[in-house]
Amino acid sequence: MPIFVVQKHKATHLHYDFRIEKDGVLKSWAVPKEPLGKHFKRLAIEVEDHELDYANFEGEIEEGYGKGTVEIWDKGDVKIKDWGEDKIEFELNGKKLNGKFILIHPKKFKENEWLLIK
């Protein structure tokens, strides 16, 4: 079963790195606001893929882009329902995040801007 991880990243700006396993890597988005609540809609900025091992990373990034503290905020299994070019539907089974979610890339948004919706 593929995994997901959300890492709380205290860098220049506090944000949440939302990652989903696909094709042997972690597809990744930076979410500026905490992804918690019964229903929510959050901006999610697509960033570079990360190696699967990064799902367990907690600690300090000492220099350069992303400098700051990283901690695992939530982690669990993900069941992908549909993975399209502009829409990803999935279910999460974590300690904090559970249920159906969607990542959607509205055409009017910039290339790397998505919405994470519960």
Describe the structure.
It is a single chain. With about 120 residues, the chain is mostly beta strands. The chain has one domain (about 5-115). Helices cover about 0% and strands about 65% of the residues. It contains no helices and 9 strands. The protein has strands spanning about 5-10, 15-20, 25-30, 40-50, 60, 70-85, 85-95, 100-105, 115. Strands 1-2-3-4-9-8-7-6 form an 8-stranded antiparallel beta barrel. Strand 2 (about 15-20) and strand 3 form a beta hairpin. It is globular and about 35 Å long. The two termini are about 20 Å apart. The mean pLDDT is about 95.
Notable characteristics:
mainly beta, eight-stranded antiparallel β-barrel, 0% helix
Strand content: over 45%
Are there runs of 5+ residues with pLDDT below 50, and where? none
Mean model confidence by pLDDT: 95
End-to-end span in angstroms? 21 Å
The number of distinct helices, counting runs of at least 4 residues, comes to: 0
Main beta-sheet strand count, sense and barrel state: 8 strands, antiparallel, barrel
What is the succession of H and E elements?
EEEEEEEEE
- Taking strands numbered 1, 2, ... along the chain, how are they ordered across the largest sheet? 1-2-3-4-9-8-7-6
Question: Any idea what the shape is?
Answer: globular
- Taken together, the total number of domains comes to 1
Number of strands: 9
Into which percent range does the helicity of residues fall?
Answer: under 10%
Summarize this entry quickly.
By secondary structure, the chain is mostly beta strands.
